[in-house]
Design goal:
The protein is an alpha+beta fold. Helix content is 33%, strand content 23%. It has eleven helices and 18 strands. The protein has helices at residues 10-21, 30-44, 49-60, 70-84, 134-137, 157-163, 171-174, 183-197, 271-285, 313-322, 341-352; strands at 87-91, 103-107, 111-115, 118-122, 141-143, 146-150, 167-168, 199-200, 207-209, 223-225, 231-237, 245-252, 255-262, 291-297, 302-307, 324-325, 333-337, 355-356. The termini are far apart.
Length: 362
């Protein structure tokens, strides 16, 4: 039986949420959706992402907001919660009495991590109980799904957070490690696995991710139904229940000859992260590496980075942690302090083969 999350009138629901979340701004903002998702996670996890998104949409539908494209927005904000560390995503988990979903979500324990002048707060308590005392909660700042405190907002902040039961995580441990490999090494590894371990046979209702070209088309426009394509491609296959499955496939005239389910069994990565990194490697090897542009943001003392391809969790977490998103509902634009730019450009180049796009002189 589905839990009844909100059974109030729109006005009553909005008033109740205003009091509980202590958040300003329209109820359709990323900050609002993130708060509602956290509350649902506190009651529902462990569960699959699709179930959580469904219940969040059902809860939000009683509020006076625009419902068009709501599911996509909620799914995007849930992705931010995973990146920020509020929610843990585990693959290949079977729960007794439930379906064998390839992905299950769990609440991370209330924690904090400090870097520079910010102390990031993440995690969700059981039943979404408030784990910060009033004195600290009033100082919490929110940027989309991020929650943080200025390190000097109160005296002995770290000691206070520890005293109320939050665990401290080092920045090195919180930033997901990524192996430093060349694009050639990554492509060869997966091609070899596909040749030796790939499953023979066609996949139904598949869509493929087209390789990059000099035209640098938008990511979403690169997903198309398979037609007459040949070669190695990233493929997505929908399921009746749960999230789509990701594969690395060998195609001939649009027909799958052999397929390799992602991620690999020994990997703890998410399927989408594995697929995106592999596609970045394939594009780099073909001579069309993914690009990003850098523009100055003098009003905030840093730079804006605009990407043309989704960032895997490890890269996205670094950019959120070190700077943050600049625009609401734009997961492809990040802000970085000036002193962090050079090191992060090196990270993007060495681990994901991104190149900075510079305008050619007329």
């Amino acid at each position: 039986m589905e839990p009844q999350v909100l059974s109030l009138t729109p006005a009553e629901a909005l008033e109740d949420l205003l009091k509980y979340f202590e958040i300003k701004g329209p109820p359709s903002s990323t900050t609002w959706i993130a708060a509602i998702l956290r509350r649902l996670c506190g009651f529902m996890c462990p569960c699959s992402p699709s179930v959580l998104v469904h219940m969040a949409c059902k809860s939000l539908s009683v509020l006076p907001i625009e419902n068009e494209g709501l599911r996509e927005r909620v799914a995007s904000v849930l992705e931010d919660l995973i990146v920020c560390g509020d929610v843990l995503e585990l693959a290949h988990i079977a729960i007794q009495g439930g379906e064998n979903h390839p992905r299950w979500l769990y609440c991370a324990p209330p924690s904090f991590v400090q870097r520079g002048d910010r102390v990031h707060i993440f995690g969700i308590a059981a039943d979404d109980a408030r784990f910060l005392p009033n004195e600290l909660r009033t100082h919490v700042k929110r940027e989309g799904a991020l929650r943080f405190l200025e390190a000097n907002c109160v005296s002995n902040l770290v000691a206070q957070l520890t005293s109320v039961g939050l665990r401290e995580v080092s920045s090195d441990a919180w930033l997901t490690k990524v192996p430093k490999e060349s694009s050639v090494q990554v492509v060869r590894k997966y091609v070899k696995r596909l040749e030796h371990m790939g499953v023979l046979g066609e996949l139904p209702d598949k869509s493929i991710l087209l390789p990059a070209t000099a035209l640098k088309g938008a990511y979403r426009s690169r997903w198309v139904p398979a037609s007459k394509e040949s070669g190695n491609h990233i493929v997505r296959v929908p399921q009746p229940y749960g999230e789509p499955l990701w594969y690395f496939c060998e195609l001939e005239a649009g027909v799958v000859q052999r397929s390799l389910l992602l991620p690999l069994k020994e990997s703890s990565e998410r399927a989408s992260d594995t697929a995106w990194r592999l596609q970045l490697a394939l594009d780099a090897e073909a001579g069309y590496p993914a690009t990003y542009s850098v523009s100055q943001d003098p009003g905030h003392g840093g730079s804006l980075l605009n990407f043309n391809f989704p960032l895997p969790l490890a890269a996205r977490r670094r950019l959120l942690f070190l700077g943050g998103l600049r625009k609401e509902n734009n997961p492809y634009q990040f802000w970085l302090p000036a002193e962090e730019l050079a090191l992060e450009q090196q990270f993007l180049r060495e681990h994901y083969w991104f190149e900075e796009h510079t305008k050619e002189a007329p």
